[in-house]
Amino acid sequence: MAEDQLTPQEVNYADWFNELVLKADLADYSPVRGCMVVKPYGWSLWENCQAALDQRFKATGHTNAAFPLLIPKSFLEKEKEHVEGFSPELAIVTIGGGEELEEPLVIRPTSETIIGYMYSKWIKSWRDLPVLINQWGSVVRWEMRTKLFLRTTEFYWQEGHTAHETEQEAIEETFRMLDVYEDFAVNEAAIPVVKGIKSQTEKFAGAVMSTTIEAMMGDTKSLQSGTSHFLGQNFSKAFDIQFLGRNNELQHAWTTSWGLSTRMIGAIIMTHGDNKGLRLPPRLAPIQVVIVPIYKNDEEKASVMATAERIFTELKTNQIRVKMDDREGMTPGFKFNDWEMRGVPVRIEIGPKDVANGTVATARRDLPGKEGKSFVPQQGLPELVKNLLVDIQASMLKRATEFRDTHIFEPKDLNELVEIVKKGWALSHWCESAACEAKVKELSKASTRCIPLGQEENPGSCIVCGSPAKRKVIFGRAY
Asked: Mean pLDDT across the stretch 158-179?
């Protein structure tokens, strides 16, 4: 296999993924085990994710703030289920300034505790509610098995934390933010997701209810791509977040938290990538169009570069993220492969014949070879490219949706479920007992991914034990 080629997905999907992250210049390994260095191209992709999400958060009334990276260890011990859930993953600081600390400090695995403490200081009356705050930053969870973007010791994310006057308001907020995540995944990342409720076993430590968006990757495994949690009054009681209500009585606030991380970049890679590399959705791609000038001598270079630079300026003026590949000493073929690896949605090729004919060649990254190539006039090119980007975005979502939908099956019994989860998701009735959930995991390595929202009333029998079941759940192998 050539050095610039990837291990094919069908040969070894894990190797394909790891090689692609490195060769597409998204990230590199850190000297600290389990951590990653996000390179400029990968960070630019994350910045575009941030911008699209931040716009949505602010449109729904949320504001950004920053809370400390270091949290007193005693804070995590105030909420029993929370500390039990995170204890194995904690990184703890015991020495500062050369001296042992009076109290150990935890490097935040998530911020419910420190934010709960601050909310207890800020919230005194029902008039102070709701509090709708989001934080952008990183957290540390001491993972045993790590994988770039999907599960790293330190990862970047946003975490929203809100406090409300009533239970109903907090539940509405939980589902509102789940809808925001779905909107982002579908319309920006071109990833079809299933919204649903996590089982009690799979829910966030300390939550009353966890909701999720689940996406199917190219190997049919599931990826939890964003979560929104209704925390009830668990953290407000632990941290004494009380307010004087409209009835003039003290009561505890109702809280939520929700988060989406750089794992979404992993989702984009595995939902859309192929054996040539990345395929990035145009709305998030750091570079939407790359221009490759093609010439053999200085005379051709002068006329080709003049045209290429004019087109570059026209596209940039029209708010298209465009890159000119004028690297010397590299063949056009090398450049084509390089930009295909990086997943740039549109490539524009300009040679001497194109200059003479007033045309350019366009190549779509989402379609293979000749199928994606066209010769188009230079006149009106910005508008044509904009329409092309819209079409690519839509076709990527369509392809991913069709792939997912053809890999969801309804098994007739447990034996069939065990076989199905090797090649897709199993949608089955489940009695919602932890014992049946554990049995499926033991037999198949599959877990309950979510109980999909919006199910019609459809009573049935649990696929595991045969007991009455009210709802269906998705079983799948997961990252």
From this structure: 98
